[in-house]
Amino acid sequence: MSPFAEARVDLDVISANVAALRERAPGSHVMGVVKADGYGHGILPAARAALAGGATWLGTAFVEEALVLRRAGIRVPVLAWIIPPGAPLAAAIAADIDIGVSSRWVVDELVTAAEEAGRPARVHLKADTGLNRGGITAGEWPAVVEAAARAEAAGLLRVTGLFSHFACADEPGHPSIAAQLGAFHEALEHADKAGLRPEVRHLANSAATLTLPEAHFDLVRPGIASYGFSPIPGLPGTGLRPAMTLSAGIAVVKRVPEGSGVSYGHRYVTDRPTTLALVPLGYGDGVPRAATNVGPVFVGGRRRTVSGTVCMDQFVVDVGDDAVEPGEPAVLFGPGDDGEPTAQDWADVLGTISYEIVTCVGQRVPRTYLGAQAADPDAGEGTALVEGAGA
Ligand SMILES: Cc1ncc(COP(=O)(O)O)c(C=O)c1O
């Protein structure tokens, strides 16, 4: 674990983001999406911060992640929506975890697991309305709905939710948005006719929570927006603020002459006598190697650029003639208040999305927490997934 590096997470900011999203969807529940270790922020602290901000549900990709929440004593409804063969369905039923169903075989396995458990499984049927990823196709929907309704009548399963997921909600006006909304309404109508009475119908990710009130239904599922990023970069008036600041103390400072090749491959060559600062973070910590010569870094009160190849554990920044000392912080990204880059800035130069930048911050980087939820003794367990979750 690098003693110099830190991913500082302001949990009050996550709570405030969730509260702002809740205002966007009045009348709907908010599910805090905390998969992938809370998008890198720490699953338990992120979950508690989301709940403090008004979320009443939590969402994960895998049952194992949901079990981490339960083991920590979190009792609100939790939905896990990727169920590979071998997923611990009996444990999910015992822990009252809602299961997202994308295939008929999951209904059958849940029925068996529920018989063994002696209690019904809680199920959200997921309609594939056009993403063509997870979800039940329109062709298979009637058969799965009938099977679920039969299992419900037998007391082995309770359909607590019906849901779907957008393909292009981050491109307002994209024709697939209206098509998916229409297909979701058809799926709901069919389920209603079959007698299903779910507690929640849900479709909206962050982008739809922010821009599509007609997609809010009974519950919205914002992930990235809770952590402070708009999935539609530049969307005005979101009131969102990034919660994570990634920084490291400079480890080495040295003067080098003009013409010095820097880092592996000498992909950066100094054009004058200059000072180089070594930042002890690398691709082993989630700093993409593609940030070589382009990643923005805030050092010594100014925004600069990664100089040369990003290595596994370190990279170098040319700071010119500025006085920089070992131990001084290099800030890779934060909320941007003091001129430091944001994770969105990193995403922009790397041709990716803010999601990937924050989620990929490695487990070697200690998470530290600020805010009211940080006072909780368990709030610092940012590495909870190491306990054995499958994400
Ligand atoms: C089913 C589902 N709902 C909600 C989300 C949250 O999406 P976002 O982070 O874009 O809000 C995801 C993320 O991939 C998802 O898979």
From TrEMBL:
<feature type="active site" description="Proton acceptor; specific for D-alanine">
    <location>
        <position position="35"/>
    </location>
</feature>
<dbReference type="GO" id="GO:0008784">
    <property type="term" value="F:alanine racemase activity"/>
</dbReference>
<dbReference type="Pfam" id="PF01168">
    <property type="entry name" value="Ala_racemase_N"/>
</dbReference>
<dbReference type="Pfam" id="PF00842">
    <property type="entry name" value="Ala_racemase_C"/>
</dbReference>
<feature type="domain" description="Alanine racemase C-terminal">
    <location>
        <begin position="243"/>
        <end position="370"/>
    </location>
</feature>
<dbReference type="InterPro" id="IPR020622">
    <property type="entry name" value="Ala_racemase_pyridoxalP-BS"/>
</dbReference>
<feature type="binding site">
    <location>
        <position position="312"/>
    </location>
    <ligand>
        <name>substrate</name>
    </ligand>
</feature>
<comment type="similarity">
    <text>Belongs to the alanine racemase family.</text>
</comment>
<dbReference type="InterPro" id="IPR001608">
    <property type="entry name" value="Ala_racemase_N"/>
</dbReference>
<keyword id="KW-0663">Pyridoxal phosphate</keyword>
<dbReference type="InterPro" id="IPR011079">
    <property type="entry name" value="Ala_racemase_C"/>
</dbReference>
<feature type="modified residue" description="N6-(pyridoxal phosphate)lysine">
    <location>
        <position position="35"/>
    </location>
</feature>
<comment type="pathway">
    <text>Amino-acid biosynthesis; D-alanine biosynthesis; D-alanine from L-alanine: step 1/1.</text>
</comment>
<dbReference type="InterPro" id="IPR009006">
    <property type="entry name" value="Ala_racemase/Decarboxylase_C"/>
</dbReference>
<protein>
    <recommendedName>
        <fullName>Alanine racemase</fullName>
        <ecNumber>5.1.1.1</ecNumber>
    </recommendedName>
</protein>
<feature type="binding site">
    <location>
        <position position="133"/>
    </location>
    <ligand>
        <name>substrate</name>
    </ligand>
</feature>
<keyword id="KW-0413">Isomerase</keyword>
<dbReference type="InterPro" id="IPR029066">
    <property type="entry name" value="PLP-binding_barrel"/>
</dbReference>
<dbReference type="GO" id="GO:0030170">
    <property type="term" value="F:pyridoxal phosphate binding"/>
</dbReference>
<comment type="function">
    <text>Catalyzes the interconversion of L-alanine and D-alanine. May also act on other amino acids.</text>
</comment>
<dbReference type="GO" id="GO:0030632">
    <property type="term" value="P:D-alanine biosynthetic process"/>
</dbReference>
<dbReference type="InterPro" id="IPR000821">
    <property type="entry name" value="Ala_racemase"/>
</dbReference>
<dbReference type="GO" id="GO:0009252">
    <property type="term" value="P:peptidoglycan biosynthetic process"/>
</dbReference>
<dbReference type="GO" id="GO:0005829">
    <property type="term" value="C:cytosol"/>
</dbReference>
<feature type="active site" description="Proton acceptor; specific for L-alanine">
    <location>
        <position position="264"/>
    </location>
</feature>
